[in-house]
């Protein structure tokens, strides 16, 4: 990786384009606890952190890294809506829709354990009710070089979901569509999955989400018999796993415990195999990033339509392994994936190679988990300082 160029992130020319969130901003209510309570019991939280969250985490990170940002979503009426509006104004984030709602924005209650792991409950509000007229307003205010970010949560909402499933296929003909399916990827409707796969120019998700998505996609194309379900530990050379017809191990799905106790090389090898298999279902020019937390990430940059052929098809099937940047102390993993995505997009917007931008994203995410809250993206100076000490 070009370390010298990466250390110049934020210098020289302005980053190209805006990051536009089409979807939801909610309020985060994060409670820091010693352990999750037993069913029917009660515990005391040691700290509480309340701030705008959801899609705001991505927009805030983009602004921290010098990108322009805009919100294409609904701001309602109430205490949460007022806090969200103030945060957008404070960070100079444009609001692309003038229509509002008499309903307040929703909120998320998150319980954060000492390991930094978090457990969420989401209560949707007006932000989950995008209408066709909102999308028309958003399109009218989009620029040609904008990048549109959408979370998988949006496709689960009864009102917004069906509209967005249709809209992104249309929008992908003019703009780059970035999608993070999120932890509820297994609950997405088949139509939404088809739209996501066909429309996204960047698909970014964590290891467990990638496995779930691949299972769903394979089932959708009649490959249920080759469903992958494996543990990273099964990839160790000391105990070669049995493989399914797709060449991937076939055992039980990996749990967070499996991932946390497996050696980094085993986890990354598993992520690499997942990436190869999943990318075959994407557009060949799409970029795929599978985040493996403290183990780094795997990126498949894709290839351009102009060079796409059977002869060079292996080019887009060759994943690049991007090393980790270990956090000095893990405090809160809320929003780490959002920071990773925004940092990657900022790097690309500054003209940095995709693999180098993925390394910057690893560094930014590792710093973010050292802090409380989801809107925890480090500054350019902090990232460059950490890059210089790697």
How would you describe this structure in keywords?
390 residues, alpha/beta, UDP-N-acetylmuramoyl-L-alanine:D-glutamate ligase, nine-stranded mixed beta sheet, four-stranded mixed beta sheet, 12 helices, 13 strands
Describe this structure in words.
Strand 8 (147-151), helix 5 (160-171) and strand 9 (176-180) form a beta-alpha-beta unit. Mean pLDDT is 84; it is low at 222-257 and 306-314. The protein has a single domain, classed as UDP-N-acetylmuramoyl-L-alanine:D-glutamate ligase, CATH 3.40.1190. The longest helix is centred in the C-terminal third of the chain and has 16 residues, at 264-279. The radius of gyration is 20 Å and the shape is globular. 34% of the residues lie in helices and 17% in strands. The chain has helices spanning 3-6, 56-64, 79-90, 132-140, 160-171, 190-199, 207-220, 256-261, 264-279, 336-349, 354-368, 380-389; strands at 18-22, 25-32, 47-54, 68-72, 94-95, 107-112, 118-123, 147-151, 176-180, 202-206, 287-291, 297-300, 320-322. The protein contains twelve helices and 13 strands. With 390 residues, the chain is of the alpha/beta class. The strands form two sheets. It has a nine-stranded mixed sheet with strand order 5-4-1-8-9-10-11-12-13, sandwiched between helices. Strands 3-2-6-7 form a four-stranded mixed sheet.
Fold blueprint:
Blueprint: H1 3-6, E1 18-22, E2 25-32, E3 47-54, H2 56-64, E4 68-72, H3 79-90, E5 94-95, E6 107-112, E7 118-123, H4 132-140, E8 147-151, H5 160-171, E9 176-180, H6 190-199, E10 202-206, H7 207-220, H8 256-261, H9 264-279, E11 287-291, E12 297-300, E13 320-322, H10 336-349, H11 354-368, H12 380-389
Parallel strand pairs: 1-4, 1-8, 2-6, 4-5, 8-9, 9-10, 10-11
Antiparallel strand pairs: 2-3, 6-7, 11-12, 12-13
């Amino acid at each position: 990786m070009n370390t010298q160029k990466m250390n110049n992130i934020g210098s020289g020319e302005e980053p190209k384009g805006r990051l536009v969130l089409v979807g939801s901003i909610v309020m985060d209510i994060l409670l820091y606890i010693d352990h999750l309570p037993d069913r029917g019991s009660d515990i005391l939280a040691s700290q509480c952190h309340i701030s705008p969250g959801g899609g705001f985490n991505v927009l805030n990170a983009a602004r921290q890294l010098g990108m322009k940002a805009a919100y294409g979503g609904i701001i309602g009426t109430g205490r949460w809506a007022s806090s969200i509006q103030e945060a957008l104004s404070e960070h100079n984030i444009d609001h692309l829709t003038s229509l509002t709602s008499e309903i307040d924005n929703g909120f998320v209650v998150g319980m954060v354990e000492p390991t930094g792991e978090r457990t969420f409950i989401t209560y949707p509000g007006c932000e989950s009710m995008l209408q066709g007229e909102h999308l028309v307003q958003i399109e009218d205010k989009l620029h040609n070089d904008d990048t549109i970010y959408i979370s998988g949560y949006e496709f689960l909402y009864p009102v917004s979901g069906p509209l967005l499933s249709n809209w992104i296929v249309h929008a992908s003909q003019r703009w780059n569509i970035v999608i993070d399916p999120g932890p509820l990827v297994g609950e997405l409707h088949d139509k939404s999955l088809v739209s996501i796969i066909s429309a996204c120019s960047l698909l970014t998700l964590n290891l467990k989400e990638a496995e779930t998505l691949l299972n769903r996609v394979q089932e959708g194309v009649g490959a249920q018999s080759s469903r992958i379900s494996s543990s990273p530990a099964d990839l160790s050379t000391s105990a070669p796993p049995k493989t399914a017809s797709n060449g991937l191990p076939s055992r039980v799905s990996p749990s967070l415990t499996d991932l946390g106790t497996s050696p980094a090389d085993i986890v990354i090898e598993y992520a690499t195999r997942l990436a190869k298999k999943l990318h075959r279902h994407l557009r060949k020019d799409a970029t795929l990033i599978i985040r493996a937390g403290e183990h780094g990430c795997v990126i498949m940059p894709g290839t351009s339509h102009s060079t796409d052929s059977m002869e060079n098809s292996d080019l887009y099937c060759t994943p690049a392994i991007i090393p980790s940047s270990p956090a000095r102390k893990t405090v809160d993993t809320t929003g780490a994936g959002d920071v990773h995505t925004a940092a990657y997009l900022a790097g690309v917007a500054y003209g940095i190679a995709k693999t180098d931008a993925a390394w910057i994203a690893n560094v930014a995410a590792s710093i973010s988990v050292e802090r409380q809250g989801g809107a925890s993206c480090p500054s350019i100076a902090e990232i460059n300082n950490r890059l210089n000490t790697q």
